[in-house]
Write a structure and sequence with these properties.
Elements: H1 2-23, E1 63-66, E2 78-84, H2 89-100, E3 107-113, H3 118-124, E4 131-135, E5 141-146, H4 153-160
Parallel strand pairs: 1-3, 2-3
Antiparallel strand pairs: 2-4, 4-5
């Protein structure tokens, strides 16, 4: 009777170890640096306070900012909340892809700290890091996407905009 229990425990440990190891494997970079999104007609001026924007981004590119209480109301155009955790490998990968890519004109990606923003997570039904929530000017949800399996700016653009 104890033998099946031991086999079940050993199998659970092995499967758990494989899953944990997979989570820390480096993901292939699916973002192409030659990617440009010309499908939008919105324009934005460069933000003076945008310290996280890619140096390679042109002046009509969108912006990448940290969340603040007025970040939704003080920005114009399309807004996407990126629920980021510094301990999450996929979040770090998406963060790097955003910083190294070109955010489409008229788009603001707002980086929200997953661990400390519990009220926002609850408001938008966010249960996992790398969740992207597109919101309107009033902060109402328009679209939600989890970029965990494809943490790239390209996937963000295809699935959130």
């Amino acid at each position: 009777m104890k033998k099946p229990l031991i086999i079940g425990i050993v199998a659970t440990v092995i499967v758990g170890t494989i899953i944990a190891a997979y989570a820390f494997l480096p993901k292939a970079d699916t973002y192409s640096e030659n990617n440009t999104n010309t499908g939008t007609t919105e324009t934005s001026s460069p933000a003076a306070s945008d310290t996280q924007s890619s140096p390679a981004a042109n002046t009509s590119a969108g912006q990448y900012i940290d969340y603040s209480e007025d970040s939704i109301s003080s920005t114009s155009g399309t807004k996407v909340l990126f629920f980021h955790a510094p301990w999450c490998p996929q979040c770090r990968e998406l963060d790097a892809s955003i910083k190294n890519g070109t955010i489409p004109a008229g788009v603001t990606i707002i980086k929200v700290d997953y661990d400390t923003s519990q009220a926002l997570r609850q408001k938008y039904g966010v249960t996992t890091q790398t969740t992207l929530v597109r919101v309107d000017d009033s902060g109402n949800i328009v679209k939600k996407y989890v970029a965990y399996n494809d943490p790239s700016l390209e996937a963000l653009i295809q699935n959130s905009l």
